[in-house]
Each structure stands twice: as structure tokens, then as C-alpha cells.
Amino acid sequence: AGAGRRRRPGLRGQCHAGGRSAMGRVLTLVLLPLALLAAPAQAEGGAPAAEQVRIEVLHLPETCSPKSKKGDLLNAHYDGFLASDGSKFYCSRMHNEGHPKWFVLGVGQVIKGLDIAMMNMCPGEKRKVTIPPSLAYGQQGYAQGKIPPNATLIFEIELYAVNKGPRSVEAFNQIDKDSDKKLSEHEISQYLKEEFARDGKKRHPSAHDEILADIFKKNDHDGDGFISAKEYNVYQHDEL
What percent of the chain lies above the pLDDT cut of 70? Predict the structure, then answer.
């Protein structure tokens, strides 16, 4: 998908609550999905030219760095519209007290079209993107989100931050204290304790054990008691 010409109009989607959030720490494993929309992404697959994401750049900062890539942790606001009649079906400023959303790019936490549309995007950039049904909610639609079957979607996106993602090689090595290229229960337990101490939030005493168990349930696919680099899903652009 190609980017459109550079210009600077404001986004049309104006919601009542708003404002940028402070860049707080995010639990680095991000194993509870921070989905833009609470519905699964479509399966990957080649799409014909008519079924590609169309991208128009509304604003590009003078300094465009870093550019987003698969595995990065992004912070953004976005509005979603139905292309058929222009009606708005989602506004991120109406949720979470108006704070921008955090999510990991390229891992299916959002619909496939948004994973594509937000690649190579820099902090401060604004885009308008058009996503065909095959890269959105397809023939089934998404009733809970008021999206009908075979709907083409338009999103207006403002990106605030591009951070190293939780599944980067840096994050893996930070947890892998003994450098054996696999994460033990003890290593992840210690890491969780450190993260909890840093953010200072009050949690029920059982939270640590519940999160640890959930991490291994979702990531230790071979059941050997360790999470390998492959299971952790360190991305192809990184090397251990």
C-alpha cells in the first residue's frame, strides 16, 4: 500500500474525551491482548490488488523517527468509520478515560488491515486508511462492533509513540538471566516481581502466580517447562 501525498488537515474524528496519556510502563510480556477492537484478526493470506489497504498520509512530522515495525509497542488514537455511509463505529477517545491505546504491531492484536496500515509509521504521524473486508471482518462482520458483513472500513489514526516491543530480542535477553536462550519459570517469576515493584500498583497476592501460570499456559507449547525463543516469538528482524 502506498502513502499519499503529504498534507496537514486535522482528523475529522473528534470525540468528547481526549488528550495524550503519560507514557507509563506496560507489563513487558503483554500476554493479555490490548486489542484495538475486541475481535480476532482475519487469517493471513495474499490479497489481490483490489483487496489491499489504501493509505493516505494526513500529517508527517519533520522528524520521522523511529518508524514502526513488526513487534513494536505503539500508542495511538483512532476513529473507525463505515465506508458505505461514513458512520462512526468506534472512537478510542471514548474508552479508558480518553487515553491512547497501547498494542503490539503485527501480532494479530488488531485486524490484519490495521497491522498493515500502521507499518513504517512515525510518532506524530496521522493517516487515513481504507481497509477492505478481507483484511477486516470479512463475510461474518462484527455485530458487537456494529460492523455489517462485507464492510469496507476507514480508520483515521494518530500515532503518539513507537517503543521497543515486548517480544523483541532485547526483552527476551533481559528476562533470560543465564543466557541459555530459554526462559524458565524462575526467570519469568523474578521478572514479574521486578515489574510489579517498578509500577507500584497494588495487586492481590495471588496475581503473581495467576499471571505466571497464564504465561506458561499460553506460551510453553511443548510443555517442557521453558519458553524458547521460538515460543516467545522473537521476530524475524531480530537475532539472538
Answer: 74
Close Cβ partners of 96 (under 8 Å, ≥ 6 residues apart):
none
| Cell numbers given for 92 | 478510542
**Hey, is 232 helix, strand or coil?**
helix
> What nine digits make up the cell of 77?
488514537
Domain of 132 in residue numbering reads as 54-164
Burial of 22 (0-12, 13-18, 19+ CB in 10 A): exposed
Q: Phi first, then psi: what are they for 48, rounded to 5°?
A: -65, 165
DSSP symbol at 126: E
Residue 86 pLDDT more than 90?
yes
- Quote the pTM value: 0.60
Residue 69 lies in a domain: yes
Residue 112 near residue 41 (C-beta atoms within 8 A): yes
CATH number for the domain spanning 183: value is 1.10.238.10
Which of 78, 165, 167 is CA-nearest to residue 118?
A: 78
Q: How far is CA 45 from CA 41, 57, 112, 135, 187, in A?
A: 12, 25, 10, 9, 36
Domain count, the chain: 2
In angstroms, rounded to a whole number, what is the distance separating the alpha carbons of residues 80 and 152?
11
- Sequence-separated (6 or more) residues with CB below 8 Å from residue 126: 11, 57, 58, 59, 156, 157, 158, 159
Does one domain contain both 63 and 159?
yes
- Give the position of cell 523517527: 65
pLDDT at position 164 is: 77
| Measured distance CA(202)–CA(10) in Å, rounded | 39
87 and 185 in a common domain:
no
Q: Give domain status of residue 20, yes or no.
A: no
Q: Where are the alpha helices (DSSP H) in 59-206?
A: 112-117, 169-175, 185-199
